[in-house]
Amino acid sequence: MPGILYIISTPIGNLEDISFRAIKSLNECNLIFAEDTRVSLKLLNHYQINKPLISCHKFNEYKRKELLLQALNNNENVALISDAGSPVISDPGAQIIDFAISQNHKIMIIPGPSALITALTASGFSGEEFFFQGFLPSKHNEIKTKLAKLKSLECPIIIYLPPHKVMEVIDLIQSVLGNCRACLAKEMTKIHETYFYGDLSEIKAQLNEANLKGEFVLIIKLNSSNPPNINQPINEFINLARQNGLSNTTILNLLSMIIDTKSKNKLYQQILEVEI
Questions:
Q1: Is 258 strand, coil or helix?
Q2: DSSP class of residue 179?
Q3: How big is the chain by its Cα radius of gyration, in Å?
Q4: What range does the domain containing 179 cover?
Q5: Buried (b) or exposed (e) across 112-131, using 16+ Cβ within 10 A?
Q6: Continuous segment of H or E residues that includes residue 229
Q7: How far is CA 142 from CA 138, 147, 162, 165, 216, in A?
Q8: How far apart are CA 56 and CA 186, in angstroms?
Q9: Which long-range CB contacts under 8 A does 161-168 form with residues at least 24 apart?
Q10: Among residues 179, 197, 221, which one ends one of the domains?
Q11: Closest alpha carbon to 155 in 133, 137, 172, 135
Q12: Which tens digit of pLDDT belongs to each residue from 188-217?
């Protein structure tokens, strides 16, 4: 019986997030195709899995097809893993999987951790519908062109950010899409796991050189569906409340009950800025 290609999801951070089925499948495979053998070796050593590792990344994936075919035709099972999360999702693997399918070999999916799903779950946005952008292009004009195509989306947009470009990309998103509501997830499932909430300006205010290290996922929700010119009726309410002798603190508490806001500080600042 020909071998099977197992597509196995691996932890995005915490090694304990791997499934029993994934460990069992890795143990039963004869060969493991890994995006970076050095990274995968840490996981395999942790679970005492001793199997031959073959590098399979975006620069050599097409060269591995012959080796894959040879192994499967020799009744050997092959595992395909990436450094973290699910193969193919902003990672290599599509060519290998497509080739196995074209050769009528059986594939078996072992699902597991995914950075985009983990971040979406933590964002507070509805997961009923979402758009996965992944990594944006590297050049500024290409980023702006890509972002402009997202303007009509009303669902959450998930973007992977390289740590050295977090502030730069957020600035570009603001310039093209406005000051969106957002969740920035950092180092998910790891020791320094952190989530930043608010609009993009508020999130930038929380970032500094010390916490801009690690892996980031940004989820934004465009403001196109928000009521237009909302500040005017709010300012009128503030003035009316003051005329009736209410304090700034009381006005803040009243507004907080009727406005969906993540930042009371920002709302209080708005109250202070409204002239009597």
A1: helix
A2: S
A3: 24
A4: 116-221
A5: bbbbbbbbbebbebeeeebe
A6: none
A7: 7, 9, 16, 15, 20
A8: 27
A9: 161/135, 161/216, 161/217, 161/218, 162/135, 162/216, 163/212, 163/213, 163/214, 163/215, 163/216, 166/207, 166/212, 166/216, 167/204, 167/207, 167/212
A10: 221
A11: 133
A12: 999 999 999 999 999 999 998 878 888 999
Residue 188 in tokens: 């998910």
The predicted pLDDT at position 239 comes to 82
How many other CB atoms are found less than 10 A from the CB of residue 97?
Answer: 18
User: Quick one: tokens of 197?
Assistant: 């909430």
Please give the single-letter amino acid code of residue 4. I
In this model, does residue 220 exceed pLDDT 80? yes
Residue 269 has pLDDT above 90, yes or no: no
d(CA 132, CA 124): 16
Into how many domains does the chain fold?
3
The Cα 69–Cα 46 span in angstroms is 29
Q: What interhelical angle do 140-148 and 166-177 show, nearest 10?
A: 40
Interaxial angle between packed helices 65-73 and 94-102, expressed in degrees from 0 to 180 and rounded to the nearest 10: 50
Same domain, yes or no: 122 and 106: no
Q: Encoding tokens for residue 123? A: 């964002």
The answer on 154 and 194 residing in a single domain is yes
245 C-beta neighbours (distance < 10 Å), count: 7
Q: Which of 58, 54, 82, 81 is nearest to 68 (CA)?
A: 54
Q: Is residue 174 classed as helix, strand or coil in its secondary structure?
A: helix
Q: Is residue 153 helix, strand or coil?
A: coil
Contacts of 178 (CB under 8 A, 6+ apart): 222, 223
